[in-house]
Amino acid sequence: MVEILGKTPKFGVIKWMGNLPQNDKVVVGVELEEDLEKGTTDGTFHGTRYFNCPPGRGIFVYYDKCRPDSRFTNNDVVLHRTPGEAFGNYESPMVTEYTAPREELEPELCGFGRGIQGHHNSCYLDSTLFSMYAFSLAFDDLILREKSPGDLQEFEDVQNILRDGIVNPLRKFGFVRADRVFKFRELLDKLGSVTGLTSDEKDPEEFLNTLFQQVFKTEPFLRMRDKHGEEHSSYFYQMFMDKDDSRPVPTVQQLFEQSFIVSDIKFIEVPKCLLVQMPRFGKSYKMYNRVIPSLELDITDVLEGIPRQCTICGNLAESECKDCNTEKTFHHEQITAYCQTCGDKTHSHPKRKNHKLIKLKIPSGFEAYFRENPDNIERKFMELSAVVCIETSHYVAFVKCGSGDNKQWCFFDSMADRKGEENGHNIPAVTHLPEFVKWLQDTEKITKTDIKDMPEHQRRLVCDAYLLFYQSPEAIMYG
């Protein structure tokens, strides 16, 4: 409890601490014990929400106008003098010099007090930011590009706090304090159409759509073309399909290809990053109780204009058949493609007389090249870099520490522990997962093991996956 000094003392509980726009003095938001008719709020200031309380109970005052509640002789409440003390005395300096992501999970990056500190329903944003920036370059263009004429007036304010207050310190020191992230949330809440980014439970895609589309006005990462030739673009790929009961525990690769068959679309180009939304609706309903994240995603068969081999004989494919995939003519993991001979032979069967073969686009001159180099068709892969998971409204992340083979994985939770109660603070944690790759490679064990007998992290990975981050190191390097 605190006492607000004045002619008539007021008493209440501090609900928020920080800086208000255009004011460098530390301000606290207090929920009062009793209603006041004048000078109060419900936790908003000039249209921006900083905390929640009933109308007539909230007030913003300078910190130095408060003291411990004098009505209690043994008051053990400590007024926090700085945001650092308010969030556990963690150091979290701004870093203005660009810092590249680390390529390895070094020992000092693990343990409690590592990662991004959570505060007030921020786990959706903490887990997503850690996935994007802790060990990856995929989204660095957002923090490095210069302001352009079409950008928001506040573009540099958002970019500076994201780069200097969050990304660079996370990469340099392995920790970001919650007040740094809260300033970022305040700007997004002010500039975007999604309300409640500073206080309410949100989904990662709500945050990312605000960041990509409305604040940074980023070009969509995905360019796709449908069967009618119309082009579409998006920041995410939401997998849609009917449940396949013959695959009780599918891989992301299987669901991904099944979704493209159903949607009848193709990627126009290899994306530098691919954000895949799992086939689930809301935070509770899941189409599959378990899904195995694929460490690599083969996107060759969903790219237009990419040479492919015949499913049957291995020669250069000239056509594909959606109907063959739908009826599962062949039991294999790739979308069916045929050379001229195999396509005609397969579709000579009476039950396939209504199937429709679709011509594939083959790059000019490639047929002659293939005759000389029959084993030189390159398939296009993207590597898994992070998995954001949700369980009972709480988001966490599994993140690959660097790009390439034989890299370590870690688990991040921005609210792994807590010190104190209402006026306490969350303690984030980063945990090394040496068994991560082994977990995903042993698909038979994942399928047959009872969920309750799985290690906790493995269970969360295969049962609670929500958003998967795939990246193309080649496209990032030359994009």
Overview of the structural elements:
By secondary structure, the protein is of the alpha+beta class. The chain has 14 helices and 26 strands. The protein has helices at 83-86, 123-133, 140-144, 155-173, 178-191, 204-215, 252-263, 322-327, 340-346, 366-372, 436-441, 443-448, 456-463, 473-478, and strands at 2-4, 10-18, 27-32, 44-45, 48-49, 58-62, 66-68, 111-112, 115-116, 175-176, 222-226, 231-234, 236-238, 265-267, 273-277, 280-281, 285-286, 296-298, 319-321, 337-338, 357-359, 381-391, 394-400, 409-419, 425-432, 465-471. Strands 8, 13, 15, 18, 22, 23, 24, 25 and 26 form a 9-stranded mixed β-sheet that branches. Strands 6-3-2-1-7 form a 5-stranded antiparallel β-sheet, with no helix packed on it. A 3-stranded antiparallel β-sheet has the order 12-11-14. Helix 4 runs antiparallel to helix 5 (178-191). The protein is elongated and about 95 Å long. The model is unreliable at 73-81 (pLDDT under 50).
Number of helix segments? 14
The helix content is 25-40%
By secondary-structure content and strand pairing, the structural class works out as alpha+beta
Low-confidence stretches: 73-81
Largest sheet: 9 strands, mixed
Shape: elongated
User: How is the quaternary structure best described?
Assistant: single chain
N-end to C-end Cα span: 54 Å
Count every beta strand, where a strand is a DSSP E run of 2 or more residues: 26
Overall mean confidence score, pLDDT: 88
Percentage of residues in strands: 15-25%
Rg over CA atoms: 26 Å
Name some characteristics of this structure:
479 residues, alpha+beta, five-stranded antiparallel sheet, 26% helix
